[in-house]
Design brief:
By secondary structure, this protein is an alpha/beta fold. Strand 1 (3-9), helix 1 (10-26) and strand 2 (34-40) form a beta-alpha-beta unit. The chain has a six-stranded parallel β-sheet, with helices on both faces. Strands 5-7 form a two-stranded parallel ribbon. The chain has helices spanning 10-26, 47-63, 102-105, 113-122, 125-129, 140-147, 154-161, 179-192, 203-207, 235-249, 282-296, 326-348, 370-389, 429-437, 440-449, 453-472, and strands at residues 3-9, 34-40, 168-174, 210-216, 220-222, 255-259, 265-267, 306-309, 318-319, 397-398.
Amino acid sequence: MSKVYVFAIGGTGSRILKSLTMLLAAGVKTSATEIVPIIIDPDAGCGDKTDTVLLMDYYTQLRNTLSLHNDGKISAFSTPLGNLGFPTPYVMPMGNNTNTGFGNYMNFGMLDSGNMAMANMLFSSSNQAADMTIGFTGNPNIGSVVLNQFATSQQFATFAASFAPGDKIFIVSSIFGGTGASGFPLLLKNLRNISPNLQIPNAANIQNAEIGALTVLPYFNITPSDTGVIDSDTFVSKTKAALSYYEKNLDGLNVLYYIGDDLRGQQEYNEGGANQRNEAHFIELAGALAILDFANNSVAGAPQTVYKEFGIENDDTDLTLKSLGQMTYRQVAAPLTEFTLLGKYLAEHLYSSLSQEWLRQYKDSVVGGQLYNVLSQFTMMFLNWERSLENPKNMRKFTPFVLDPRPDKVFELAKGIGTSKVMFVAASNWDLYDHFLNKGECAKVANQHGKSEDGKFLAHLLYGTKKVVSEKIRF
């Protein structure tokens, strides 16, 4: 049992953290005592990053209302997300010196003619003029120079001070862009080769830690732009070049996960900033599962790097829960179904159930309050994430649930999975859901697992949902 520090590099890293947060909220289990997300992205205003930070903040607020026990009754929100106290939670500051053009950052204007000639050989005029406030815009040569400051930063020392023997490190990055492709090998090098002159606390623990990584190969294209600097036609060549480099320069990596897809839909062109909000993709969900696999298993002591890939049971373009491999199915089917049903209940039916016995103690003190609104926002984001996974722009879609309201078929939401008749209960649909929530067993669990009325309300919903799904849906 240990903490897992997840370094999520660039926009892809943030999107995979988003999927990880959704899985943990639903109750997908991990052996980690804590997951500590650390986002590395020079694009301060990246929409994917700000959305993920907000989601993780909501997660922590909701988790803090619960008193969780190892009794198997509530698994949702059971894994804490560690916060190292950065000014923006979970985001490692890059420093103000990256909020400029690359040429200014490098002080090229101060070079003599000979050195400037050398700089011109290494960096094109467009490289030198690149605006780093929106990241490295597909230029790993720029990113490698800027990100090499990592080990000497105060933020690295903050991370190191919290690192304990047995803790693990996982690095998430794409291989076909700028920030991720350059940041991954540099980060690994800095973690394994900490200079004694830096006097970094716990340096030996970090250097000897188990380190895993996920490298994300191309899984989408972008719409062509006449004026933009990012061209998806270069993704494959950049991937080949990076893989060639990785083959010889990833010393000290215990396990490397590969993921990608040759069925690639199109995302809207965007170089960064607040408008960079890609549609969610199944590859990001599978990437999050790689983090959990690393947390739950150890390859320490293996004589060389272990390589892993993700596979599905059926090579479908519209994936359902049944398309997943058996191990993945057992891991995610029930938790995702439970949290989807809970979100739909809040959105579609709760206000119609205010007269129910179970809601009487909560309707004045909880419903409509601050934490209730956080829960409503979080579950709405969860359902929107699932809708985004179904987006037709994705050539391979994940469509496991019927997300539109169907009050007469409430429990037929998991595609391809049947339902059972609940013995000795005449109620159906939302009435059956309320029947389970009204049981005294739910109230008892709520009192045991809620730190406050808000927490009792959340625990009541989570346990009642787990019970009705286990009775009604055939997993």
